[in-house]
Amino acid sequence: MQNSSSTKQAVLEVSRPGSAPEFVPIRQTPFLIGRGAESGNNLLLDDGRISRRCAAIADDCGGFRLEDRGHRLGIFVNGQKVEQTALREGDVIDFGLQDSYRIVFHTQEAQAVDAVLTSLGRFPDSGASLPGGGLSKLNLLLEATSLVHSALPLESVLGTMLDYAVAITHADRGVLLAPDADGVLTIRHAHGSEGQDLAPESISPSHTAVRRAIQQRAAVITDDLNLAGLELQRAESVVIQGLRAVVAIPLFTRPRSGSGSSRLPPASELLGLLYLDSRRPAAFSNLDRQILDALGAEAASILDNARLVERERERQRLEQELDIGRQIQQALLPHGLRDFPHLAIAGTHYPCHAVGGDYFDVFPLTDERTAFLVADVAGKGLGAALLTTMLQGALSGMALGVEPVKVLNHVNRFLRSHAGVGRYATIFFGIVDRDGALEYICAGHPSPLMVRRGRVSQLCSEGSFPVGIIDTAEFTAVREQLEPGDTLVLFTDGVTEAQDPAGEFFEDDRLCAIVARHAEDSVDGLHEGILSALRDFTRGAAQSDDITLLTVRYRNPEKA
What we know:
Layout: E1 8-15, E2 22-25, E3 31-34, E4 43-44, E5 55-60, E6 63-68, E7 75-77, E8 80-82, E9 84-86, E10 92-94, E11 102-109, H1 111-120, H2 134-145, H3 154-169, E12 173-179, E13 185-192, H4 207-216, E14 220-222, H5 230-233, H6 236-241, E15 245-252, E16 270-278, H7 286-332, E17 343-350, E18 358-364, E19 369-377, H8 381-395, H9 404-417, E20 425-433, E21 437-443, E22 449-452, E23 455-458, E24 478-481, E25 487-491, H10 493-496, H11 507-517, H12 523-538, E26 547-554
Parallel strand pairs: 3-4
Antiparallel strand pairs: 1-2, 1-11, 3-5, 5-6, 6-9, 7-8, 7-10, 10-11, 12-13, 12-16, 14-15, 15-16, 17-26, 18-19, 19-20, 20-21, 21-24, 22-23, 22-25, 25-26
Helix pairs in contact: 1-2, 1-7, 2-3, 2-7, 3-7, 7-8
């Protein structure tokens, strides 16, 4: 049997990757959660990995309790697997799956509205006999409470909430003030009695009423300013504007209790203030005042929830932009690396974040010459990714026949002349001719490993400055002759500086040992052997830097 829950109002914030959150109220218990409607589920989860009879939220002595009803992977609350548990504000529910549904439990004490309903019960049943149109005001209050779990844009929610406040109080003007970046209360919205927008500069809220409401952390309601205290009567803004009635309702957050935490809840935060005034004296009944108190509690929840929804939208927008950046960056990397007549190649790039500061490239300069490179821009994330894209465009110009030394010197001068960029990059750039002649430039990058007849050594004996650090840096090319079977292993420091769960680094010696172990393997076998050893070493530890690996083997073109 299903019962309605009367002691609390609760709502589920249901999110799935790539979709905006949906707010689903719990209107009855048990509230069934699962896949498909045939099991009588109240919340349908469109994921084939989730059981049809998954979970339920039941009444728990005035609160709510989550129960596992048979989900094969188990139900998790705040990362802990549970059979059943009492739910608290902010608890996060998931189903042991990646890229699936995530549910946040929200509950709001209904005391403010209940108090008004209790007061209403003391009057005759006829709404017409309620003082001051109490029934119509109560209806407006109940309509306003529906905004608590609204997914509308923040500005729309705030404007609508203000209109309800004006209608309930019959005020001439209504203002919503909110703290700016410096914490100073400024006018966010201003509406007239007909819902029309008012110019913020045309309104001067009573600073005395506002200050008193915030200090007392309670609503300041005056029926007739002629009968109010002298401080409020003589307030300059009240006198100049000829005001007769003022309502100032501070909006404070309700401290959110943590799940099972013994720490004291954090102090409530001032979200803003509802200010209403009129040139007509207002006669607020006891019921009116209770409605205004309830409005203050509901308005704070509405504003708090609207901010959370707005932040979630902003987070999703940023994630979408980063995803677009990731797609662009991945599209610029070489995919399906083809073998050249004289080279066999394998390459991998794992960014630390959605976008990264590493990249590699392989491209033909002529039928006889092939260029390859690995670059690592200082830093991680979006800023580094922007510079890698610029570098990739500049270095790809070598395909037009420009000498690599001239290109790198030009890029260095460009970055130094734009010091505000604040970034530099290490680069290894090489060109292999069909006959095995290797010409390379190492600009501050870790030396590639050279594998020749089973022995591993470093290719570069001398280094140079990264690109973008020294104004007067001049890069020069070094020449080397490759033999058939010679292999170059290029990498960024994300490989050698990868850490295991205990914080130990992978380091150069371990990399050399692994390369030596797989020296006789194919290029793909050597490449995968390094990556496999890296995965075994880190054992799931969080990646702290971009990882890029490029393996290049020279072979006799006549035998290829």
